[in-house]
Amino acid sequence: MSEKLEPIKVADVGDIEDEEAIVVDGATNGTGRDIAVFFSDGKYYAIDDTCTHEEASLADGWIEGEEVECPIHSARFSLCTGAALCLPASIPARTHKVELRGDEIWLHPGVPVEGAVTQVTA
Ligand code: FES
Asked: Name one GO molecular function term (predicted).
C-alpha cells in the first residue's frame, strides 16, 4: 500500500445480519481488491474478499465465530488475523481495520488490524 486511503462508511449497524458479510468493491475502497466486512457474534471484521487459494468470495463462505470457511475448497481463515487456518490455503488474507462511529460502520482500507498475520510462515 503506497498511499494512505481515507476511511469510508460502508453500512449502518443492523445492515449486516449475524454471520453474514458485505463486499466493498476494490474501486470503492481504493485498494483495487474487494474487501469483505463480516459481522459475527457481535463483532465486525474485514479481510480481503478473495480467497488466497483461488478465486472465491469469502463473503459467500460459512461464517462461524471468528472464522470463515471458503465456499469452494473449505480453507478456513481467521477473521481476526487473516491467518489461513487450514489447507488448501496457506497464504493469509489481508485484514483491514473496522471502526464503529455511533451506529455507522467505517472501514479503513489498507490499515491492517493490530496483531494481523502479514507474512506467510514456513
Ligand atoms: S478457492 Fe478458497 S480454498 Fe480454494
From this structure: metal ion binding
Q: Give burial (CB, 10 Å; 0-12/13-18/19+) of 18.
A: exposed
Whether the CB of 88 sits within 6 Å of ligand 1: yes
Q: Which atom of ligand 1 is nearest to the CA of 56?
A: 1
55 Cα: distance to centroid of ligand 1 (angstroms): 7
Q: Does domain 8-118 have CATH number 2.102.10.10?
A: yes
Distance (Å, rounded) from C-alpha 66 to C-alpha 39? 10
Strands 104-108 and 8-12: antiparallel
Domain residue spans in the chain?
A: 8-118
CA of 12 to the centre of ligand 1 (A): 30
42-98: per-residue pLDDT in tens? 999 999 999 999 999 999 999 999 999 999 999 999 999 999 999 999 999 999 999
CB-ligand 1 contact for 68 (6 Å cutoff):
no
